[in-house]
Amino acid sequence: MKKRFKTITLSSTKQNQEILSIANQCYEVLKNKGLEILVDKNLSKLSFIGLKPSSKKTILKDSDLLIAIGGDGTMLNCAREYGSKNVCLLGINLGNLGFLNDIDPEDLTSFLTQIIEGRYVEDNRFFLEASLSTTKKTFLALNEVVIHSGEIAQLIEYDLFIDNVFVYRQKSDGLIVASPTGSTGYSLSAGGPIVHPKVSSIVLSPMLPLSLSSSSLVVKAESKICIKLASLREAQISFDSHSSIRLRKNQEINITKSKSIIKFIHPYENDFFEACRSKLGWSSRH
Predict the structure, then answer these.
(1) Contact assessment for residue 216 and residue 160, using Cβ atoms and an 8 Å cutoff
(2) N or C: which end of the chain has fewer CB within 10 A?
(3) Among 72, 102, 123, 240, which one carries the catalytic annotation?
């Protein structure tokens, strides 16, 4: 039996009727167990049951578990906002793939009851941290950092270094630098490998490279990755498809494994390979 959670926050990036219905169901389960319940500003419509939205500061201070209701985009947002600051995350899947949100609505009551009674699996994942040569600010991404041209069928040119060793100069639409968590996301669509979450690695996948021999590269998670832009045209960088920033020629991007760790909470039934079978259409054993 793991530790019992005492204060739980309900969170989402939207508040349509389906999300509000699921949030209300969570509230009833948690209330019946006598737990303290908070909601973020995106679930303000739950005020009719007496729940007033709490500030981000209050949630970070008081919550020991946050329930993210939605798809992977919702979970990624909650991961950056709260998970990177030591709040445990549990996901309820209302999206299509939902590799991070692994509780389906029909299983909500039984799985949530198990978890709040201390029967769950802890899953630690690492963030990627990116820094740019033009600013002192750093950026976190749970899934991937993407350097891209920002336009359809436009190539950029860049030099790739790993641990200060030159790897190659590449012309392509961009480069995806993904964590194991992100290997089932955008990286996969670019032809990258699926990496088990417990494999400590980083995947680099060129996007539509102007080369017949380019393929994804898997390196140890502790690698220091440096990308130097060489093309004349501007490029962009994004973090989990968020916070797109323009890049200029000769700009340098450094990407490393962050010290920030996020802790996901899963039901005991959670199985990465089962998720791959059901969400990616892998054949099942009969």
Answers:
(1) no
(2) C
(3) 72
